[in-house]
Amino acid sequence: MTKESYLAQFYGKSQNYTDIPNKWYKEYNVKKGLRNEDGTGVRVGLTRVADVVGYAEALEGGIQAIPGELYYRGYNVTDLVKGKMGSHFGYEEVCFLLLFGYLPKKKELEHFCGILRDCYEIPDEFVEMNLLRMPGKNLMNKLQDAVLTLYNYDDDPDNTDVYETLVKGINLVAKLPSIACYAYQSKVHYYDRDSLFIHYANPEYSIAENFLSLLRKDQKFTDQEARLLDTILMLHADHGGGNNSTFTNVVISSTGTDIYSTVSASIGSLKGPRHGGANIKVAEMMDAVLEDVGGYTADDKKLRVAVNRLMDGKLYDRSGLVYGFGHAVYTISDPRAEMLRACCAEVAKEKKQQTEFVFRQRFERAALDVMKERKGTALPTNVDYYSGFAYGMLNIPRDLYTPLFMCSRMVGWVAHNIENKLYDGRIMRPATKYVGENKDYMMMEER
Ligand SMILES: CC(=O)SCCNC(=O)CCNC(=O)[C@H](O)C(C)(C)COP(=O)(O)OP(=O)(O)OC[C@H]1O[C@@H](n2cnc3c(N)ncnc32)[C@H](O)[C@@H]1OP(=O)(O)O
Ligand SMILES: O=C([O-])CC(=O)C(=O)O
């Protein structure tokens, strides 16, 4: 027998000793996934950073489904997105709002943008040693690694004072888009065998403009493209304290560890396909669906069959999931998906990608119908369903979909980290119930 087959044998045998029957969770009142019976999340904190509204309390008890809304520091994100139209870039304004709690005056925003832009530059040796010499085949893993390495570039990395956390956090918000681009160029060069180019960050640019300029060989982009990316960044900047990566952030930070360790853990969480990693899964799933149904002209019946095949684990990754649908808080709709759908409709016209967009909408309708029929409850389209489509129209490669989500969410992680340090501060330490038996140790020869 090989070593591996011994391991498989031990693993098989272990099931007799380690099983936890499902009914015990109910018996011991354990909230699986930190969820209540009705699917709502167990309350683990108080926040004034953002409000994710997906249901109301019904008069007769329980919850009532309502259209989703998202507020940053009390401002509806829809209004924030509308408010920047034709004037400033909105992501920086949202960063200010999330970090400081109020909308900046013009001068305040200018100063804040100046501070951010002063942090864009990445030291040459960091790029050479950590990104070019050590390319990563998955950018989220590489970015975890890069963030941990930034610890070494900080003179006082273990200082976790609130103000220091703010300063270090702003530095990360400013630097990570450039690092993500460079990590991508390195991956493309060394793993995908394509040409390498590394542009320098431009301190005149907003974060969205800077990202497009670093990514493209000719560094050119249109204002419309930068504004679309800016809107996407705004929509991903925060999602309350309960989403997995933000919760991870405060759990880790509650031990008193440094911000680099904390953020690296959040990146690991966001990578998961049931969280931020769903944006890449949607893109791959749509390729599989397109192939399965025979192209864009497939009728609605074929699309419904494809949804059923996905749910039965017979198509794509066999997980049974239709990526880009369902949410832990939103019931009827995710406001970010609604906004992104509208943005995509507009840009698809200009980019002549209406065939793809119409197909995506038709698949969405088929998925919503089939999932409602099979699950008995509506599962909403979530932010990840249209974000990848929008990135695609900006010629942003798939490798960068989840990293872009991460770059945007960094500010939310920092804001919640600070809030938690200020107003909770206690080490997170929930409990588990031991449900095994205690046994007397047996000497080797007695077993
Ligand atoms: C930025 C973000 O993180 S947004 C979410 C991105 N993730 C995805 O798009 C991945 C697909 N979606 C999912 O996996 C889930 O909907 C999650 C993780 C987002 C939410 O999970 P939960 O809140 O635990 O799911 P919920 O309790 O609402 O699910 C109810 C039922 O619908 C099923 N379901 C939920 N979403 C989906 C889906 N997308 N495809 C198929 N079935 C689904 C669940 O399996 C469950 O079925 P069951 O009752 O037969 O066991
Ligand atoms: O809130 C959640 O669980 C997931 C989500 O949409 C996000 O983090 O943006």
From TrEMBL:
Native species: Enterocloster alcoholdehydrogenati
Annotated SUPFAM superfamilies: Citrate synthase (SSF48256)
Protein name: Citrate synthase
Keyword Zinc-finger: no
Pathway assignment: Carbohydrate metabolism; tricarboxylic acid cycle
Catalytic activity line of the entry: oxaloacetate + acetyl-CoA + H2O = citrate + CoA + H(+)
InterPro entries documented for this protein: Citrate_synth-like_lrg_a-sub (IPR016142), Citrate_synth-like_sm_a-sub (IPR016143), Citrate_synthase (IPR002020), Citrate_synthase_AS (IPR019810), Citrate_synthase_bac-typ (IPR024176), Citrate_synthase_sf (IPR036969)
Coiled-coil stretches: none
Family to which this protein belongs: Belongs to the citrate synthase family.
